[in-house]
Write a structure and sequence with these properties.
about 110 residues; alpha+beta; HIT family, subunit A; 5-stranded antiparallel β-sheet; 3 helices; 5 strands; globular; binds guanosine-5'-monophosphate
Length: about 110
């Protein structure tokens, strides 16, 4: 079981900022920006690579939730970045699909 599954199951605490039937969003424990929220599906999907065509609606809901989080966090106008790390070279460290919502400061590009 991943750490995010334990957060979904409320076995460990998290600072939840958005929740609906299918999606949960909570603050990253090691924030890399003034706003750093993780948006995850409640249904366990390891990553984009293991998602299927049947997941299209749920994948879209993650972006809709990310937009709502950005609005609620007050960064919709200033701008923000959505990141999905996938697999080893992508830098994914938790095997439960998650969208990073990063904002509140000017972010550099490209990533290292
Ligand atoms: P990844 O590197 O897989 O794209 O991102 C995983 C993120 O999960 C990291 O930014 C990390 O700080 C965050 N994270 C890891 N464990 C926990 C935890 O127990 N609680 C919270 N809120 N975030 C976590």
């Amino acid at each position: 079981m991943t750490i995010f599954q334990k957060i979904i199951d409320k076995q460990i605490p998290a600072k939840i900022v958005y929740e609906d039937d299918e999606v949960l969003a909570f603050r990253d424990i090691m924030p890399q920006a003034p706003v750093h929220v993780l948006v995850i599906p409640k249904r366990a999907i390891v990553g984009v690579s293991s998602s299927t065509d049947d997941d299209a609606l749920l994948l879209g809901k993650l972006l809709v939730a990310a937009r709502k989080v950005a609005e609620a966090e007050g960064v919709a106008q200033s701008g923000y970045r959505l990141v999905i790390n996938n697999g080893v070279h992508g830098g994914q460290s938790v095997d439960h699909l998650h969208v990073h919502v990063l904002g509140g400061r000017a972010l550099t590009w490209p990533p290292g």
